[in-house]
Amino acid sequence: MKINDPVVLAELMDRHAVYERASIDNDTAVLASLYWDSPHALRYGVTENSGRSVRRLDVLALGDSTGIVNVEFVRAMDGVERIGRQTEVWVRMEDAWRLVSLHVSPPPSYIEAVSARIGLDIDPATRAAVNEDLNRISAIAGFLMEFPLSQDVEAAPVFQP
Amino acid sequence: MTIDRERSGAVAIAAAVKSKEVSAVEVIHAALARIERFNPILNSFTAVFPENALAEATEIDLAIARGEDPGPLAGVPFAVKNLFDIRGIPTLAGSIIRADAPPAARDAASVQALRHAGAVLTGALNMDEFAYGFTTENSHYGVTHNPHDLTRVAGGSSGGPAAAVAAGLVPLTMGSDTNGSIRVPAAFCGIFGLKPTYGRISRRGAFLFASSLDQVGPFARSVEDIAAAFDALQGPDPLDPVCTARPVELCRPGLHRGTSDLRIAVAGGYFAGQGVPVAFEAVSAVAAALRADRTIEFPEAGRARAAAYVITASEGGNHHLPDLRTQAGRFDPLTRSRLLAGSLLPAAWVNFAQRFRSWYREQVAEVFREVDVVLAPATPCPAVAIGQETMVLDGREIPSRPNIGIFTQPVSFIGLPVVTVPVHIEGQMPMGVQLIGAPWSESKLLRVAWELESRGVVSAPIAHGFQPRN
Predict the structure, then answer these.
(1) Is the ipTM of this complex over 0.85?
(2) Which of A97, B87, B207, B239 could bridge across to B93 with cysteines, CB 3.0–4.6 Å?
(3) What is this structure's pTM?
(4) Is A125 an 8 Å CB contact of chain B?
(5) Does A6-107 carry CATH code 3.10.450.50?
């Protein structure tokens, strides 16, 4: 089996680019034409792709009819850049490449990540307000953290005024 | 009878009750009548206990008839912010979540102490939910109106206690102060408020907000009443982990000693900006009366405020995490998202803020080697309108609710004692001035407050629309 045949690689790069464009534009017709029309086709964690930038792209061609595209991307959430990952499995079927499996792990926001860690399920309707408050505290904390506090300074376990 | 049952302060009432000039029952009847008449306008009380209060008053009258002394506050009607435990009822702390809580098994330490001194509990008072606010705009129990202008807030979070005293419903109330929750409403309502040194008064049975900062204290319309209440409230309590073991320092006996031995300065820098002119006019009036011509600065006061903000958000969020997990929808919309956000703060911020607190304490201790009392505005502006979202300070439009406490937060952050004194400038809403002292110096602050009061520089008359009918 030939690995990374340049012609096959170019085809996979092209299919990936078409998929990316369609998913950013949310062009459902194009997306539908790319997916394998089968109950075995898999789509994990698909979200809209706007506002993300690709940090790393790896394409692997196995023979002339199987390809795997891995993408690592960065997206700003709550004002902080976070890393997400995507895997596309392509198979050539009856002269057309089809996406048989797609797995996107979008970057969790800080609020999602920390609230999950402490067992706190925040109602999606409240998240925007929580984010706004967190941003306000963050700005205030940022001002505090700029202070050049010596490493010698200890907190008082029971504060004695 | 010469005692004015409706207008008199706590000390005058106790003297009249003890001399049998008036009975405690008569005093309590008068207070209950004023509450019934005016509370529908103010919404300061969330619960009134007429039967219990009259029964307690009867006991006091009986004790006096037997020749016993019921205490320095005999027959004085008082009420407490509804975060203090009152035996037999759930402690709301301004929430509906806690309306389902089991009834308190015993009174809070403050309620016990005031009752022990002969005062009579008449009711519980409104507040921002869980004390997280400066306006007492409570979505569950309604807003408390400012007795000096009903379209404005009473301040918060102890808005009910301040409004009840300013309108003369009762002469004495208890509130709590984490970042300004006694000093802000005292200023907005034009009355005296004492935030004692952190750890001075037991907080046992008071529903906490941010334990690193929480303190409880009294509101009244005279300095002597504040001192009498403070003296009754002092004392060690092993059941409050931060309550001091220092000996009680009675303040009322020394109130009249004058202030000539005290070095008094005005807070400059951070405390001289970000306010409307009347805030600084009030400070100038007090400074002029005290001949305080010196200016000092608390280094990094702005960052102290930031650190207090971080600690409060984090401790408040953590305190309420169990309810945020299971019934977030039942929190007041004005507190919910802030508590949720606070529950998620990085430890790096909170630890830094606590360490910064040690540093700042040392810096401010240096200042208090040079002076005894520091004057600063209590709030950057007079009472804001009910529902007001923003205000303009230094030409910048900023959210009003989180910025009302900019002058109080850097002070309570290190547990300093503060007496807020009311300045009434003709044609204006009242303003408050903070008399700030070194830790444990309440007696000095109360002497200064008494001096100002006796010279008419500060005063707390019953608000105009609530004068007793004669």
Answers:
(1) no
(2) B207
(3) 0.86
(4) no
(5) yes
